[in-house]
Amino acid sequence: MPRFLVFGALLLVAQATSTPQCDNNNSTSNTTPLVVNGGPSNNGFNEPFVSVTVCVPGTSNCQTIDGILVDTGSVGLRVLSSALRVPLPQQTGAGGAPVVECLPFVDGFTWGPVQTADLQIAGERASSIPIQVIGVDRFPTIPNGCSSQGSSEETQDDLAANGILGLGSFIQDCGSACTFSGSANPGLYYACPTPSNCQVTSQSLASQVVNPVARFSSDNNGIVIQLPEVAPTGQPGAVGSLIFGIGTQANNDLKSARVLTLDASGNVTTIFNGTAYRNSFIDSGSNGTFFLDSGATGLPECRRSTGFYCPPTRQSFSATIVGANNISVPVSFGAANVDAVNDTFTAFPDAAGSNPGGFDWGLPLLFGRTFFSAIEGRSTPGGNGPYWAF
Amino acid sequence: MRSLSVRIAVIAVLLSLAPSAVFASLGGSLSSVESDRAHMKSALVRIARVDSYTVHETLSPTGTTVREYVGADGIVFGVSWAGQFPPDLRQLLGNYFDQYRNGGQTTARARKARGRMAINQAGFVVRTAAHTRSFFGIAYAPNLLPAGVSPSVVR
Predict the structure, then answer these.
(1) d(CA B2, CA A386)
(2) pLDDT by residue (tens digit) across A310-343?
(3) Does residue A21 carry a pLDDT above 80?
(4) Which domain holds residue B66?
(5) How many C-beta neighbours within 10 Å does residue B42 have?
(6) What is the pTM of this model?
(7) Euclidean distance between CA atoms A185 and B63, whole angstroms
(8) d(CA A60, nearest CA chain B) in Å
(9) A92: which strand partners?
(10) Around A346, how many Cα atoms within 13 Å sit in the side-chain half-sphere?
(11) Which of A55, A319, B38, B81 measures 20 to 30 Å from A260, CA to CA?
(12) Which ipTM score applies to this complex?
């Protein structure tokens, strides 16, 4: 075999094995401002926003949308139909029927069509990805199987945002369960041959609403969230960075961060006062540290700020977060009176409230930290995702 | 920490889907509820009798575990769920579903906890937390709790 061919083959192998981190020399801009403020409906509280640009695929017909909530607790881009002005193509399924999604959230669901967009953020681009357009304007009849999840989140006030950028550690928002037919299908995707006749449909992995980062050509193995410390009394807001990739460029090096791998449901364990709480998670879309209840913590519920604790004086706590790999990180956190926080402040580190499962570590955990979230199956210098590291 | 001394008198584990399997809605009764379990196409995993109530545990085809807490009077006083996908809450919460749905709607300008949800009403209490592929919740009716039973048994 001629020598240059062997050399060429070696180059190809080297390129293939380093795909997730191939951008060291070709530095795509991989960082965008992450802003904690009141958001588009001016009622945000501990909620981090970015701007994204969506385009009709393959065209320069684009629109930049601000007030998009960065949510590591969900997967995929969802934009309010009322905030969207570019005509995105509708995804169709078997027989050409439009595909519409019902995505359950903790306090309800989002209903609306799956459409295809090119997404741009920082210098990154995801081409022709499925996103959800939230709203009942095109498919007005929400099926019973969807409305049985609670209330429809379909307005700017419902979401406190113009959309949600789900950057969780999964690649798809549903996964293999939605590829099944029959009762094993959880019913997230519907085929709607007419606007008011929608039936649950099976949806291939490639057609599901996707984590956009997983579809970038580089910096596609995870994200970094960097937020500054916030004063104990709260602040009007805070500005940090959302960085794409882990160990792909100088600005997303893991350094000494400890890597906590996730279980199959995307959870870790929290040890608090000697008890291990499985089903714990870190979620930028949760706006407090949510744990136990008033009976167990002795912290009274707020009168005004629904769902938060309002102790008369600040209480401090410590816990240990443990990954599926048994690597752990000790953390300290506080609970203070949310009702007493200045009404114009949107960043407050001691927001806490109750939670029936484990610990829901929301945005307060991320203040003053550099937090890494690696995507399932993707290679990083800290091992394969899914993991959280900080 | 409260101590909860619950004596488990009988645990019957039924590995197959028994015809007498019971799946009720919160506030519903045992006598009319087999159709509800069938609605969710769930398999009965076990029935545990704990002093003054029984726990009916079922597993849905999507892998979600639902527990229902039934008093000696045959009334379901509490429910819980855990899994990668939420259960049919209209079915599970029965007549309380509208209160649940309304609880999920926000006052537009109120500062509200997001990422989890709680409803604290005199007759209906809910706690839920969730993220993609991980959902948990409990719900109970305080006025239906059997005498001497703590709401903390619902989990």
Answers:
(1) 37
(2) 999 999 999 999 999 999 999 999 999 999 999 9
(3) no
(4) 2-145
(5) 24
(6) 0.89
(7) 10
(8) 32
(9) A98
(10) 20
(11) B81
(12) 0.88
